[in-house]
Amino acid sequence: QAILAQVCARELAGEPRRASPRVSLPNCSRDALRFRTMSVVPPLIALAGGVVPGPLLNLMPELCPLKALLGSVFLYNMPHMVRVFYILKGGDKLDNINPREQVQKLCASGRGDMISKAQSAHQNGLESFPPFAAGVLAATIAGVPGSLVGQLCSTHLFARLGFNITYIWGKGDATAAIRSSFWVLSLLCSCQLIA
Asked: 84: which of 27, 30, 165, 181 lies 20 to 30 Å off by Cα?
């Protein structure tokens, strides 16, 4: 990924591609480069000893780590329920035989903006759960102070709730930036729990 990021940076700067007989690299857009860079920022921050700021953690209540795992399951399923609501609100019946195809058809028909956003928020929640669960279990087994684990858990849940709300109902670049900030904060909590 580091080599790919360097190649993308060179392309964005207008430098010609260097020939490489071993590697075929795709063209890189600014958005693709930003996405690749953003995905590695929280783990790198945690690896370098960076943490969620203390003043923010101090605002958060301590949660029981195992209950926080249940809260995370609720939050990654919340957008799924929102998606079901918007399907029913549009007058459609739920297709429980092939729900993914139904979502694709509704989105292709132009009636699925909220459905698509809810589905994407749900998918992101599913992707965020394994690092969070691993972090909660690792911190608990390693004997990290319960107050810190509990506050990181509540911060993660707060960030995931904010992510869901801004993803599903947000519009515009400012809301997208806020959503990304929630995403970074939630992943940083997971990485700090692991580290």
From this structure: 181
